Here is the input.
Amino acid sequence: MSDKTRIRRLPERAVADREVVAAILDEGFVCHAAYITDGRPVVIPTLYVRDGDRVLLHGSNSMGLARAVRAGSPLSVAVTLVDGLVLARSAFNSSANYRSVVIHGEGILIEGEEKAAAFEVIVEKLVPGRLAELRPSTRSEMAQTSVIALSLEEVSGKVRDGGPDDEPEDLPEPVWAGVVPTRLVFGDPVPDIALAADIDVPDYLRPYRR
Here is the structure.
Protein backbone atom coordinates (compact mmCIF):
# COMPACT_ATOMS: atom_id res chain seq x y z
CA MET A 1 0.00 0.00 0.00
CA SER A 2 1.34 3.43 -0.99
CA ASP A 3 0.56 6.92 0.26
CA LYS A 4 -1.89 7.23 -2.65
CA THR A 5 -3.94 4.25 -1.57
CA ARG A 6 -3.59 4.42 2.22
CA ILE A 7 -7.02 4.97 3.80
CA ARG A 8 -6.71 7.57 6.53
CA ARG A 9 -10.39 8.18 7.33
CA LEU A 10 -11.84 5.12 9.15
CA PRO A 11 -8.97 2.81 8.16
CA GLU A 12 -10.75 -0.15 9.79
CA ARG A 13 -13.02 -0.18 6.74
CA ALA A 14 -10.11 -0.70 4.35
CA VAL A 15 -10.20 -3.83 2.20
CA ALA A 16 -6.88 -5.59 1.66
CA ASP A 17 -8.25 -8.66 -0.14
CA ARG A 18 -7.74 -8.17 -3.87
CA GLU A 19 -10.52 -10.67 -4.65
CA VAL A 20 -13.00 -8.46 -2.80
CA VAL A 21 -11.75 -5.43 -4.74
CA ALA A 22 -12.15 -7.38 -8.00
CA ALA A 23 -15.69 -8.45 -7.04
CA ILE A 24 -16.70 -4.83 -6.39
CA LEU A 25 -15.31 -3.78 -9.76
CA ASP A 26 -17.03 -6.68 -11.52
CA GLU A 27 -20.42 -5.83 -10.03
CA GLY A 28 -20.19 -2.16 -10.94
CA PHE A 29 -20.13 -0.72 -14.44
CA VAL A 30 -20.17 3.06 -13.92
CA CYS A 31 -17.13 4.87 -12.55
CA HIS A 32 -16.14 8.49 -12.02
CA ALA A 33 -12.82 9.34 -13.65
CA ALA A 34 -10.87 12.39 -12.51
CA TYR A 35 -8.13 14.10 -14.50
CA ILE A 36 -6.39 17.45 -14.86
CA THR A 37 -6.95 19.67 -17.89
CA ASP A 38 -5.86 23.29 -18.36
CA GLY A 39 -4.74 23.35 -14.75
CA ARG A 40 -8.14 22.41 -13.31
CA PRO A 41 -9.61 19.14 -12.04
CA VAL A 42 -12.43 17.48 -13.99
CA VAL A 43 -14.56 14.48 -13.01
CA ILE A 44 -16.75 12.58 -15.47
CA PRO A 45 -18.98 9.49 -15.16
CA THR A 46 -18.25 6.77 -17.70
CA LEU A 47 -18.68 3.05 -18.29
CA TYR A 48 -15.85 0.66 -17.45
CA VAL A 49 -15.03 -3.02 -17.10
CA ARG A 50 -12.34 -4.88 -15.22
CA ASP A 51 -10.01 -6.90 -17.44
CA GLY A 52 -7.68 -8.87 -15.19
CA ASP A 53 -5.31 -6.48 -13.42
CA ARG A 54 -6.58 -3.38 -15.20
CA VAL A 55 -9.76 -1.49 -15.91
CA LEU A 56 -10.80 -0.42 -19.40
CA LEU A 57 -12.64 2.80 -20.17
CA HIS A 58 -13.82 3.88 -23.59
CA GLY A 59 -15.30 6.86 -25.36
CA SER A 60 -14.79 9.28 -28.20
CA ASN A 61 -11.29 10.22 -29.31
CA SER A 62 -12.25 13.83 -28.77
CA MET A 63 -13.45 13.45 -25.18
CA GLY A 64 -11.61 15.35 -22.49
CA LEU A 65 -10.48 12.17 -20.73
CA ALA A 66 -8.67 10.90 -23.83
CA ARG A 67 -7.08 14.31 -24.44
CA ALA A 68 -5.91 14.43 -20.82
CA VAL A 69 -4.31 10.98 -21.06
CA ARG A 70 -2.49 12.06 -24.23
CA ALA A 71 -1.22 15.11 -22.36
CA GLY A 72 0.12 12.96 -19.52
CA SER A 73 -2.47 13.74 -16.83
CA PRO A 74 -2.63 11.29 -13.93
CA LEU A 75 -6.00 9.60 -13.42
CA SER A 76 -8.07 8.75 -10.39
CA VAL A 77 -11.04 6.44 -10.89
CA ALA A 78 -13.72 5.74 -8.26
CA VAL A 79 -16.41 3.04 -8.20
CA THR A 80 -19.11 3.03 -5.51
CA LEU A 81 -21.88 0.52 -4.83
CA VAL A 82 -24.46 1.76 -2.31
CA ASP A 83 -26.03 -1.05 -0.27
CA GLY A 84 -28.22 0.91 2.11
CA LEU A 85 -29.03 4.11 3.96
CA VAL A 86 -28.00 3.88 7.61
CA LEU A 87 -30.38 5.92 9.76
CA ALA A 88 -29.05 6.61 13.21
CA ARG A 89 -30.70 8.40 16.12
CA SER A 90 -28.74 11.52 15.23
CA ALA A 91 -27.97 13.19 11.92
CA PHE A 92 -24.27 13.11 12.80
CA ASN A 93 -24.10 9.31 13.05
CA SER A 94 -26.32 8.58 10.05
CA SER A 95 -24.42 7.12 7.12
CA ALA A 96 -24.61 4.66 4.24
CA ASN A 97 -23.53 1.09 3.69
CA TYR A 98 -21.30 0.91 0.64
CA ARG A 99 -18.51 -0.89 -1.17
CA SER A 100 -16.02 1.33 -2.98
CA VAL A 101 -12.78 1.16 -4.94
CA VAL A 102 -10.42 3.98 -5.86
CA ILE A 103 -7.68 3.54 -8.49
CA HIS A 104 -4.74 5.88 -9.10
CA GLY A 105 -2.35 5.74 -12.03
CA GLU A 106 -1.34 6.77 -15.52
CA GLY A 107 -3.83 5.82 -18.20
CA ILE A 108 -2.62 4.22 -21.42
CA LEU A 109 -4.36 4.77 -24.75
CA ILE A 110 -4.51 1.37 -26.44
CA GLU A 111 -3.99 1.33 -30.19
CA GLY A 112 -4.26 -0.97 -33.20
CA GLU A 113 -5.39 -4.58 -32.90
CA GLU A 114 -5.05 -4.44 -29.13
CA LYS A 115 -7.59 -1.61 -29.03
CA ALA A 116 -10.04 -3.59 -31.14
CA ALA A 117 -9.63 -6.59 -28.85
CA ALA A 118 -10.03 -4.45 -25.71
CA PHE A 119 -13.17 -2.86 -27.16
CA GLU A 120 -14.64 -6.33 -27.65
CA VAL A 121 -13.77 -7.15 -24.03
CA ILE A 122 -15.73 -4.07 -22.92
CA VAL A 123 -18.79 -5.07 -24.96
CA GLU A 124 -18.74 -8.67 -23.78
CA LYS A 125 -18.12 -7.85 -20.11
CA LEU A 126 -20.92 -5.30 -20.01
CA VAL A 127 -23.45 -7.65 -21.63
CA PRO A 128 -22.14 -11.25 -21.82
CA GLY A 129 -23.26 -12.95 -25.03
CA ARG A 130 -23.88 -9.70 -26.89
CA LEU A 131 -20.66 -9.63 -28.92
CA ALA A 132 -21.50 -12.77 -30.90
CA GLU A 133 -24.64 -11.12 -32.29
CA LEU A 134 -23.14 -7.80 -33.35
CA ARG A 135 -21.60 -6.97 -36.71
CA PRO A 136 -17.83 -6.25 -36.56
CA SER A 137 -16.84 -2.67 -35.81
CA THR A 138 -15.67 -0.73 -38.86
CA ARG A 139 -12.28 0.94 -39.21
CA SER A 140 -13.99 4.31 -39.12
CA GLU A 141 -15.76 3.46 -35.85
CA MET A 142 -12.55 2.27 -34.24
CA ALA A 143 -10.71 5.39 -35.43
CA GLN A 144 -13.27 7.50 -33.59
CA THR A 145 -13.01 5.44 -30.40
CA SER A 146 -10.53 5.65 -27.55
CA VAL A 147 -9.88 2.77 -25.16
CA ILE A 148 -7.97 3.64 -22.00
CA ALA A 149 -6.33 1.03 -19.79
CA LEU A 150 -5.57 1.80 -16.15
CA SER A 151 -3.54 -0.63 -14.05
CA LEU A 152 -4.87 -1.86 -10.71
CA GLU A 153 -1.41 -1.56 -9.18
CA GLU A 154 -2.42 1.48 -7.10
CA VAL A 155 -5.86 0.53 -5.78
CA SER A 156 -7.72 0.73 -2.49
CA GLY A 157 -11.04 -0.69 -1.34
CA LYS A 158 -13.34 0.40 1.46
CA VAL A 159 -16.52 -1.21 2.83
CA ARG A 160 -19.09 -0.11 5.38
CA ASP A 161 -21.86 -2.52 6.46
CA GLY A 162 -24.08 -3.11 9.44
CA GLY A 163 -26.38 -0.88 11.44
CA PRO A 164 -26.02 2.59 12.92
CA ASP A 165 -23.25 3.42 15.40
CA ASP A 166 -25.20 5.53 17.84
CA GLU A 167 -23.82 7.19 20.93
CA PRO A 168 -24.87 5.28 24.08
CA GLU A 169 -26.69 8.33 25.39
CA ASP A 170 -28.78 8.48 22.19
CA LEU A 171 -30.14 4.93 22.44
CA PRO A 172 -33.18 5.89 24.57
CA GLU A 173 -34.26 8.52 22.01
CA PRO A 174 -37.76 7.78 20.57
CA VAL A 175 -36.44 7.81 17.01
CA TRP A 176 -36.56 4.94 14.50
CA ALA A 177 -33.08 3.68 13.66
CA GLY A 178 -31.88 1.02 11.26
CA VAL A 179 -30.97 0.40 7.64
CA VAL A 180 -32.94 0.99 4.45
CA PRO A 181 -31.41 -1.53 1.99
CA THR A 182 -30.80 -0.46 -1.59
CA ARG A 183 -30.18 -2.57 -4.68
CA LEU A 184 -29.91 -2.04 -8.41
CA VAL A 185 -32.67 -3.82 -10.36
CA PHE A 186 -32.72 -4.17 -14.14
CA GLY A 187 -36.15 -4.14 -15.74
CA ASP A 188 -37.51 -6.08 -18.71
CA PRO A 189 -35.84 -5.18 -22.03
CA VAL A 190 -37.79 -2.60 -24.05
CA PRO A 191 -37.52 -3.15 -27.85
CA ASP A 192 -36.47 -0.38 -30.20
CA ILE A 193 -39.40 1.03 -32.16
CA ALA A 194 -37.67 0.01 -35.42
CA LEU A 195 -37.02 -3.57 -34.30
CA ALA A 196 -38.44 -6.24 -36.60
CA ALA A 197 -41.42 -8.01 -35.05
CA ASP A 198 -39.84 -11.45 -35.42
CA ILE A 199 -36.73 -10.63 -33.34
CA ASP A 200 -37.18 -11.91 -29.78
CA VAL A 201 -35.34 -10.81 -26.66
CA PRO A 202 -32.12 -12.90 -26.56
CA ASP A 203 -31.63 -15.42 -23.76
CA TYR A 204 -28.68 -13.48 -22.32
CA LEU A 205 -31.09 -10.66 -21.46
CA ARG A 206 -33.61 -12.96 -19.71
CA PRO A 207 -33.02 -11.57 -17.14
CA TYR A 208 -30.03 -9.27 -17.24
CA ARG A 209 -28.21 -8.89 -13.91
CA ARG A 210 -24.74 -8.23 -12.56
Notes: The chain has one domain: 11-166+201-205.
